[in-house]
Amino acid sequence: MKTPYDPYKNTELWNVISEAIDELVENDDLKERTTHNHIVGYLCQKVSSSLTEKGN
């Protein structure tokens, strides 16, 4: 199933955010209440959008 976050998968941004979330979960600093991919994708989209807006 396609998601709006598919363009970010397998990118460096995706990998960094995913790893950071994994570390927070492992340290009990964060509890994921939705799928990991949804959280990572949403954050990738927000960061990418913010960087694009600042670049204009």
Report on this model:
Helix 1 (12-26) crosses helix 2 (36-55). The protein is globular, with a radius of gyration of 12 Å. With 56 residues, it is an all-alpha fold. The chain has 2 helices and no strands. The model has no long low-confidence stretch (mean pLDDT 95). It has one domain. The chain is 62% helix and 0% strand.
Topology:
Elements (H helix, E strand, L loop, with lengths): L11 H15 L9 H20 L1
Helix pairs in contact: 1-2
Key features?
56 residues, mainly alpha, 62% helix
Tell me about the biggest sheet?
Answer: none
Structural class comes to mainly alpha
End-to-end CA span: 33 Å
What's the order of the H and E elements?
HH
Helix percent band: 55-70%
Number of distinct beta strands: 0
Shape: globular
Number of helices: 2
Strand content: under 5%
Unreliably modeled segments: none
Concise overview:
The protein has two helices and no strands. It has helices spanning 12-26, 36-55.
